Amino acid sequence: MKIRAASETDRDAIWNIFNEIIAAGDTYALDPNMSREEALTYWFRADMYTYVVQKGSRIVGTYILRPNQLGPGSHVANAAFMVALDAQGFGVGRRMAEHCLSEARRMGFRAMQFNFVVSTNAPAIHLWEQLGFKIVGVLPDAFHHPEKGHVDVYVMHRSLLP
Amino acid sequence: MKIRAASETDRDAIWNIFNEIIAAGDTYALDPNMSREEALTYWFRADMYTYVVQKGSRIVGTYILRPNQLGPGSHVANAAFMVALDAQGFGVGRRMAEHCLSEARRMGFRAMQFNFVVSTNAPAIHLWEQLGFKIVGVLPDAFHHPEKGHVDVYVMHRSLLP
User: Do B146 and B25 form a contact (C-beta atoms < 8 A)?
Assistant: First the structure.
C-alpha cells in the first residue's frame, strides 16, 4: 500500500470511490446525486491537499487535508477520507489517517478537527478514538440517515502539538 | 430599522462592514486581508441568502443564511452576522437574528447551527443564549485572537421545530 499526492490521472479512480460513498448516503453530508465534475471540483479545491492510496495498480482510497478555517482559524487542519466499499475493513482508513496526521504535523498544523462524523459510523469513530481523537461536540439530529432517520453527528478533535 | 434581501447596490455598504469586521480579526476565521472581490464572492455565494439591515438610508448590518451541509445534512441552517462597528450595541444583531430564525423556519430548516463562535465574543454568546441557542461543542484553542492568543471556539445550536 502506497500513499501519494493525487494527480490528474487519478480522477476516474477517485470519482468511482467518491460516487459509491455518497450514493450510499450514510456517512457524508453531500448530495448523493452530485455529478462527477462537482465531486472532483470539491475534492481538488484550491485549498486542499488531495492524496490517494494505491494497492498494486489500483486506487483503493483517497483523502483530503486542508485548513479547517481561514485567517485566525487556519492553524487547525481538517481532513476527509474515503475507502472503496470492497476495500473497507483492511486497514486502508487507518493507514490514510496516520499518513494524514503526519502530513498535518509536517505542515505545522496545531490540531486536527473533523466537523461531521455521523454517530452511526461506528468503524470511523472507533478508529478516530484509537488515533487520539475526542468527541468535542454533539450536533443533535444533524444527519438524515437513509435507514435510521435523523441521527446525531460528532465533532472530533485532537491536538498535534508535541 | 428594515431588513431586506441584499441587492447588487448594497455591495459597497456590505464591503465596508465586512472589511472593518475582518480587519479587527477578533470574531471571524477569515483572512483579515481578504480583498473586496473575495469578500463579496464569499458573502453572495450561490447557496446563500444574503440580507441587509437598513436604518434610514444607511446599511448598518448584514447577514447570510444557508444550509450548513449538503444532502443528508441540509435540514440544518447556518448563519453569520455582521454589524457596523459604530452601530453595535443598539440591537441590530438581535433584530437580524430574530429575522434570520424566522426566515429559516419559513424555509423549513429543522435547526440552526453556528459553527464558529469565538469564546471571547461575549455579546454574541449572550445574545445567542437569550435566543435559545446552546453550546453543543467546544473547539480547543481553535481561534488565534489578536490580543488573547489561542482561545476556544463554541459550536452553538438550536432546534427550529415547534
Answer: yes
Residues from chain A that touch B115, judged by Cβ atoms under 8 A, are 115
Nearest to A29 among B73, B138, B153 (CB): B73
Number of cross-chain residue pairs from A and B with Cβ atoms under 8 Å apart: 107
| Backbone dihedral angles phi then psi of residue B98, each to the nearest 5 degrees | -65, -40
Q: In degrees, to the nearest 5, what angle opens at C-alpha B146 toward C-alphas B140 and B149?
A: 35
Asked if B67 and B103 touch (Cβ cutoff 8 Å), the reply is: no
Encode chain B (162 residues) as per-residue pLDDT tens digits. Answer: 999 999 999 999 999 999 999 999 999 999 999 999 999 999 999 999 999 999 999 999 999 999 999 999 999 999 999 999 999 999 999 999 999 999 999 999 999 999 999 999 999 999 999 999 999 999 999 999 999 999 999 999 999 999
The string of DSSP letters for A108-148 reads T-SEEEEEEEETT-HHHHHHHHHTT-EEEEEEEEEEEETTT
CA–CA separation, B125 and B155 (whole Å): 10
* Residue B25 · residue B68 · CB < 8 Å: no
Rounded Cα distance between A79 and B63, Å, is 28
- Asked whether B133 and B94 are in contact (CB, 8 A), the reply is no
Q: Tell me the C-alpha distance between B57 and B14, whole Å.
A: 14
Q: Between chains, do B140 and A111 touch, taking CB under 8 Å as contact?
A: yes
CA distances from B57 to B10, B13, B20, B60, B88 (A): 11, 11, 20, 10, 17
The three three-digit cell numbers of residue B74, written as one number: 441540509
Interchain contact, B72 vs A25, CB within 8 Å: yes
- Reported ipTM: the value is 0.93
What does the alpha-carbon distance between residue B119 and residue B58 come to, in Å, rounded to a whole number?
Answer: 30
Mutation site, A31, A34, A47, A69, interface B, largest B CB count within 10 A = A69
